[in-house]
């Protein structure tokens, strides 16, 4: 049984006097215990909105969330706010992109880590602080006893992100959602944080949902990868498969348009034409069709369904990139 | 091709750290760029890589004298740029232009594309011939792949990639020889990045431009650069021709940097060996003695503390490296050791007040 089962999750933002925006449009995916699942896509594809909807962190007004988010067979979307608060931080931890704006600047770090333990584990402040010290040590912050009394601005970006990871992992959650955890960091620091995340996930058996735009990050970390475009999952596959034999033209295009360190540099990069806003609505066919090189007449008309592939993945495309082995 | 267009010799840019309400006291300096020497040949692309805070942007700005260098020499096509003054400097700037990182904030939202592009021409008194200006704007827009109808639009009507094209057009309109591009693609989506990278390549080919590209993304820099310089804490630690740097990185920092870049291929990722650096970049206000990298270097030796290594030519390939133990590390004679992360307080190197001299300090405030 999957730990997290997201079924047909949609988020629609409504604005006065304007067309509603379908930020996430029928997103479905599952996460098994201990598994690492990636959500990849460019800005505006709905990956962050999906994660916020799962955590129930979207503002209460101005949007409509439909579908089901089953965690342990409980639908998180129907829980009362107080029940949801009990689960957030205890069963599901979350790491955000920008560590400076997600930490409270006027509260010492130790208290921010300890308050999770006080709230969910019923520890006293003293006991929680002792535990917090161990947590900071575990995420590789040097001299944790001193760090406890310091404020977020006194730490570097990498250390702040480590502190955030410590907070997310304080209650040993079974699921961790990381939304672009390394985007604000330099490459050498990114390598530190990714290695740390991988170790923590391997050691504790925590399932991880990794949200990122960086295909390189996904390649080294995720078991299964979901590629999103314009609010929908367009391709899902195991990582070896996705990177080895991408089937969706968008996935293929993304992979070919990033310059790589390990291959000879050629002349021009492959480019996907147009920009992310050049879409048609999914109801009128495939949203990627205006930018796609493999577009055929069948791409326009009805919504293209997400169909399972024979290799256990899923694909939303009428004219996919051919594979070596015929299906 | 091999003619040198830009020569930078021992360039230093230090920013004072000031404090005090009535009288500014200088408490120390941030050594943003601390002795960099390099040459850029006409028609080539020089890529400058490094992590945030290593001084790569300051170097680019110092070269154009957008920030005033503390010492050192800049020679552009035989002209001593640092001795230029006032009107001379202003007119000289036509030959070197800049493309900025963030296409959202570097274009004035209240100016139409037309007025953004004409502004530069006006400054250099090239706007008198109305028909000529029209033709010039059209051809410039055409060369960056925007329709002529864009002229009457405003920046907010364009997507990020298109805005970056406007930024490039703005730099091109005066017909410069050198373009300093500071993180030209890092604010763009992956699929758009490729378009802008290709555009920069096409323009170089057709106009014979020389680029100094400043970026933190090693894969991007490798793709477009002929020569690559790696910066760490204000100085160049290694410089090599194109692929040479990636095939044989000599400096321990370059090795770590290259091994840290994620590669979108799981087969490669699973087998890679990573050199994980401990800790953070030390504060440029209080850099370590000797070799700047020694606090994080897994190969550091006592000599590294005492003596700062010079950037010197390593062998016939012309690769330059600033490390005492290059040969020993390359042969494997020197083994890496464990490094303990040192605490780095961002506080100690407070962000310098760049341009604070422009802000008039009110001296009539009562002292608390």
UniProtKB/TrEMBL annotation, chain A:
Superkingdom of the source species: Bacteria
Protein's name according to its UniProt entry: Dipeptide/oligopeptide/nickel ABC transporter ATP-binding protein
Glycoprotein found in the keyword field: no
PANTHER family: DIPEPTIDE TRANSPORT ATP-BINDING PROTEIN DPPD, OLIGOPEPTIDE TRANSPORT ATP-BINDING PROTEIN APPD
Family stated for the protein in its record: Belongs to the ABC transporter superfamily.
UniProt GO molecular function: ATP binding
Membrane topology according to the record: Peripheral membrane protein
CDD domains the UniProt entry points to: ABC_NikE_OppD_transporters
Organism: Paractinoplanes durhamensis
Record's subcellular location: Cell membrane
This protein's UniProt keywords: ATP-binding, Cell membrane, Membrane, Nucleotide-binding, Transport
SMART domains per record: AAA (SM00382)
Positions of the ABC transporter domain: 6-255
From TrEMBL, chain B:
CDD domains given in the database record: ABC_NikE_OppD_transporters
Superkingdom of origin organism: Bacteria
GO molecular function, one term: ATP binding
Keyword annotations from UniProtKB, A to Z: ATP-binding, Nucleotide-binding, Transport
InterPro entries: AAA+_ATPase (IPR003593), ABC_transp_ATP-bind (IPR050319), ABC_transporter-like_ATP-bd (IPR003439), ABC_transporter-like_CS (IPR017871), Oligopep_ABC_C (IPR013563), P-loop_NTPase (IPR027417)
NCBIfam families per record: oligo_HPY
Full protein name: Dipeptide/oligopeptide/nickel ABC transporter ATP-binding protein
